[in-house]
Amino acid sequence: MEKTNIYDLTFEEWENWLKENQEPAYRAKQIFDWLYVKRVDSIEQMTNLSKTLRQKLEDQFEFQALHTLNQHTSQDGTVKFLFQLYDGHAIETVIMRHDYGNSVCVTTQVGCKMGCTFCASTLGGVARNLTPGEIVAQVVESQKILDKEEGRVSSIVVMGSGEPFDNYEPTIQFIRIVNDNRGLNIGQRHITVSTSGIIPRIYDFANLKWQVGFAVSLHAPNDELRTRLMPINRKYPLKKLMEACHYYVNTTNRRITFEYALMGNVNDQDEHAEELANLIKDLKCHVNLIPVNHVPERDYVRTPRNQIFNFKKILEKHKVNVTIRREQGGDIEAACGQLRAKHIKHEFKL
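^ that's the sequence the OP posted. Answer follows.
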């Protein structure tokens, strides 16, 4: 019988599993404590559980360890991991250090099928979705690293490789697990999920009425350009995307962050800034300008510094809240998918 990843279950699911296995439901709190507070590596370490219960757990669950294939540390403290999953696939996870704490960027899929032309994650397409537990394990492993320096994961961004809303249910399950105050206890307001614009899932996410941060990868202010950069725009064009964004804001009363990667002479001209301001003018939102990371397999170049600030100035003139993302991990190939792409290329050569 194939065993389940031990990090796959929410607290309530542990209670149900225990009842189904003729064990008291209160054991769920002990299991959660072992997994997420004490952060043990094996079931046999759960010493306050009976031998009978531990055997039942051994029969049905396993720690699907993330094996570190590569670990790069940037001069700014950013740490990027290339983890190998139980089936040999590789994924990336990043720890970013800020003045306000440590943030972990998690991956939701092995690769990505969205096909965005400026992103390394899509090189080679998508291999498979991750389970909730495989996403949770990235946070647990990051926390174990931070334990050594008495640090803590204070926030999570679901912005690594893959499209979270293309793996929707496991992503939602992941949030429920890491948010639980009996375990990792990461507050909803300290979690942000990003999507390239899968519209039906935006409505589903809005209807949860969570306090989780929500970001949309926009990257272009008109359909023609966005379709060229992001093929998903053919299926979900800007008019429909903006309708979904308005629904999200009206339903949750929370603002949206629009991610906008600036690419030299592609989407960074004054007219693009004016067009973007007009597109989002009626929305409760914030724009995060991202100087594009150079990816060897892609042709895009960085927008000159003065043009980045000019773009920002035009948006501010139209009363748009805007910031320029602080660069982190540039010296360790911290752009999504770069480390994995290099690993795949190396494996192929072998």
